[in-house]
Amino acid sequence: MSWLPGALRLASLLVVLLAAGCVTEVGRFAMLADFPVQAVDLPEDAEELPMVEAEDFMNVYVVVPFQDPPAIDAALQAALRKSPGDVLVDVVVEKEWFYVPLVYGYRGYRVRGRPVRVLEAPERVRSRRSRLLQGEGR
């Protein structure tokens, strides 16, 4: 049984080398929106709603991806759908990935921020966002 400590070390090393993952901060943003808006469009007394968080991930089995590549804007839109807000302020965007070679992995983005309603936005901003949400293009 003198080989057992060496085998355990080797097995531990293989697990560490094969199962890798990481979360990195892509950036911090004062404001993110999924439509053209300027900071001056936000009312000074805008109500900040509770913090929301959403993500857009892609699963990989063996080496085959099973969804579209992840995107920050998809995570942003998912976060905005969770609240009545129009934009997110004080936003943190993180990129996360994990992979066990030839078995399973995932990668994607997580967006976290406080939604704010653009109550007094000009009509051009409101109508533009409505068209985008209905899928009429950019």
Looking at the structure, what is the overall shape?
elongated
The tally of beta strands, per DSSP, is 5
Number of helices: 3
Task: Give the strand line-up of the largest sheet.
Answer: 1-4-5-2-3
**What is the number of independent domains?**
1
Strand content: 35-45%
Give the low-confidence spans.
none
Mean pLDDT figure: 81
Alpha carbon gap, first and last residue: 68 Å
SSE pattern, N- to C-terminal: HEEEHEEH
Alpha-beta classification? alpha+beta
Kindly state the percentage of residues in helix: 25-40%
Rg of Cα set: 21 Å
Question: Largest beta sheet, briefly?
Answer: 5 strands, antiparallel
Descriptive tags:
alpha+beta; 5-stranded antiparallel beta sheet; 3 helices
Q: What's the arrangement of secondary structure elements?
A:
Layout: H1 4-18, E1 20-33, E2 52-61, E3 64-65, H2 72-81, E4 87-100, E5 104-116, H3 123-133
Antiparallel strand pairs: 1-4, 2-3, 2-5, 4-5
Commentary on this structure:
The protein has 138 residues and is an alpha+beta fold. The protein has one domain (20-133). 26% of the residues lie in helices and 38% in strands. It has three helices and five strands. The protein has helices at 4-18, 72-81, 123-133, and strands spanning 20-33, 52-61, 64-65, 87-100, 104-116. The protein has a five-stranded antiparallel beta sheet with strand order 1-4-5-2-3. The protein is elongated. The termini are far apart. The mean pLDDT is 81.
Brief description of this entry?
By secondary structure, this protein is of the alpha+beta class. It has helices at residues 4-18, 72-81, 123-133, and strands at residues 20-33, 52-61, 64-65, 87-100, 104-116.
